[in-house]
């Protein structure tokens, strides 16, 4: 190192520089030279090597290399150059001050670790962007896994920095941390559970960003917007946001409506409550009237004898579902009578709409049951409905009118 300092010191002495300041000035000149060398190295890397790598990546058919050699990753890589140059060249300046040289080299190593962490962060963000554009990985909840890798990298970096500051082997620090593993587990409990849950959600394809899920326990009913290491964000249909820990989605049950969207049909499962008193066998005149109105096919004979109006009504619903263009023809269609209850006989309609969109689905369902309720009287059937206050008032008025018509009522009222 003296070969480098000697010419500079001789030159300073030749221009009349005082001897007591020659050593300090030499060190400052060398420090300035190191700063210039590190700046030029980073500049050459950014202006020469990076454009060349980016041109090569753009010339390939693959797109992942365009992300890996993006400006963000290359800037993070360029930050590695100054600490490496300083660590190597500082010995030329402070060769005669080993204590100060050791401190400065520790600073360079810490700076290098920080820049490496920044590079890892940029690299993982780039991998996440590549995954979001990949056909298979696009809907996988991988963000939590990337966050866990970042957390592990920061933990390793912190251990290395502490080991540099105290001058101990990193394995010694790790051994000391092993004794306090319970405390570490307690601190990072949510992160560890989130990582395990994220792996399970991704491996079993249980959840994807954009899925519509329902979880009544947490009041969640909407679309998944983000899956991170510690939270799953769900935007409900009322535009509120519900956050759920990932491990809750694994330990508890939730409903994912993705299968409904992928099937291409949305289920209608609704019942009409028929008044049991209105169920009766049809007379020949009623059957003929239904034929004329097109409610029974002219060439179709009822399967049951005698003919029951409720049976004819169920056949009519089945034919209506087959003719309805909004009902999916390839998915199950069924009309059945359920167990009679105190509120009447439930006739359940089970089918699927062609559209899975909520508004369209509700419109198709409403139109279907509007027509079914409207056509009930044509079959001599009535829908069951609990008596209301108006019904009781009408009944009271009818009873009063009947009472007034009874003979002797006026005489009793007069007396």
List the helices and strands and how they pair.
Elements: H1 2-14, H2 19-59, H3 64-68, H4 71-78, H5 81-89, H6 98-133, H7 143-166, H8 170-179, H9 181-187, H10 189-203, E1 212-215, E2 220-227, E3 232-236, E4 241-244, H11 246-251, E5 255-256, H12 258-263, E6 266-274, H13 284-292, H14 309-323, E7 334-337, E8 345-353, H15 358-375, H16 389-405, H17 409-414
Antiparallel strand pairs: 1-2, 1-5, 2-3, 3-4, 6-8, 7-8
Helix pairs in contact: 1-2, 2-4, 2-5, 4-6, 5-6, 6-7
Description:
The model has no long low-confidence stretch (mean pLDDT 80). Strand 7 and strand 8 form a beta hairpin. The chain is 59% helix and 11% strand. With 415 residues, the protein is of the alpha+beta class. 15% of the residues are buried. It starts with a helix and ends with a helix.
Looking at this protein, list some descriptive labels.
single chain, 415 residues, alpha+beta, SH3 type barrels, Alpha-Beta Plaits, five-stranded antiparallel sheet, three-stranded antiparallel sheet, 17 helices, 8 strands
């Amino acid at each position: 190192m003296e070969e480098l300092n000697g010419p500079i010191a001789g030159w300073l002495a030749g221009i009349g520089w005082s001897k007591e300041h020659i050593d300090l000035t030499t060190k400052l000149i060398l420090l300035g030279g190191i700063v210039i060398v590190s700046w030029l190295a980073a500049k050459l890397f950014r202006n020469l090597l990076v454009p060349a790598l980016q041109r090569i990546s753009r010339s390939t058919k693959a797109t992942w290399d365009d992300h890996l050699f993006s400006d963000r990753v290359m800037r993070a890589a360029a930050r590695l150059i100054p600490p490496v140059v300083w660590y190597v060249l500082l010995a030329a300046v402070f060769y005669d001050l080993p204590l100060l040289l050791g401190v400065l080299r520790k600073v360079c190593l810490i700076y290098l670790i920080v820049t490496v962490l920044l590079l890892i962060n940029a690299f993982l963000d780039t991998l996440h962007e590549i995954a979001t554009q990949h056909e298979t990985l696009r809907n996988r909840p991988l963000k939590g896994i990337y966050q866990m890798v970042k957390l592990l990298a920061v933990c390793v970096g912190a251990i290395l920095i502490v080991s540099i500051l105290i001058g101990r082997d990193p394995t010694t620090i790790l051994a000391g941390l092993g004794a306090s593993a319970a405390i570490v587990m307690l601190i990072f409990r949510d992160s560890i559970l989130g990582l395990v849950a994220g792996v399970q959600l991704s491996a079993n394809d249980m959840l994807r960003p954009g899925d519509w899920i329902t979880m009544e326990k947490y009041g969640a009913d909407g679309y998944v917007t983000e899956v991170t290491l510690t939270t799953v964000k769900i935007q409900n249909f009322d535009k509120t946001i519900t956050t759920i820990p990932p491990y809750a989605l694994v330990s508890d049950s939730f409903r994912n409506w993705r299968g409904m969207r992928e099937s291409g049909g949305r289920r209608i499962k609704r019942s009409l409550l028929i008044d049991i008193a209105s169920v009766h066998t049809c007379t020949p005149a009623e059957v003929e009237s239904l034929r004329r109105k097109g409610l029974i096919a002219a060439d179709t004979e009822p399967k049951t004898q005698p003919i029951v109006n409720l049976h004819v009504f169920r056949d009519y619903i089945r034919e209506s579902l087959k003719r309805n263009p909004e009902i999916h023809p390839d998915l199950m269609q069924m009309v059945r009578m359920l167990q009679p209850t105190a509120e009447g006989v439930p006739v359940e309609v089970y089918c699927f709409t062609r559209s899975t969109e909520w508004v369209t689905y509700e419109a198709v369902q409403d139109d279907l049951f509007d027509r079914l309720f409207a056509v009930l009287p044509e079959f001599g059937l009535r829908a069951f409905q609990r008596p209301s206050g108006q019904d009781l008032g009408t009944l009271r008025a009818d009873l009063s009118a009947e009472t007034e018509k009874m003979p002797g009522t006026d005489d009793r009222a007069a007396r």
